[in-house]
Write a structure and sequence with these properties.
This protein is α+β, with helices and mostly antiparallel strands. It is 34% helix and 46% strand.
Length: 151
Amino acid sequence: MSNRHELRAYNYINRSYADVRRDLLAQPLDVFRKATAHSSGPELHASTGVIDLSAEIVIEILAIEEPSPQRANVNVMWKASRRPGLFPTMHAKISIYPLTPTETQLELEGIYDPPMGVLGEVVDAVVLRDVARASVQRFVDDTAAYLRSAT
């Protein structure tokens, strides 16, 4: 039985939509890797209370869509590169769209299934859901910070 959990996160980039679109869509995988890069590669990181977790991830670009001239979506999937059966696999749509002429929103809408069946559901309900939310927000924050500094 699958219990999918939805997550949303967003941040703002103080740059025009055209500039953010150009920088993100040229090489989205490169942007995500650089934004989340640590010593050994892309990594998700989250801290909630006393729990501090990180996992190296493998990111895959599934599709790039432009449903309108003012919106672009990058569909991604990521999973832990080591022991993926212990971590959820995330499927997400990362969208950008203009808020003002000089500000762009970066938004992530994602779904994950807790790993390890019923045990995973219990652990997710007790603690990992907050960790998942925090790690997704950190991913979005890191990506927004990278895109803010891109020239």
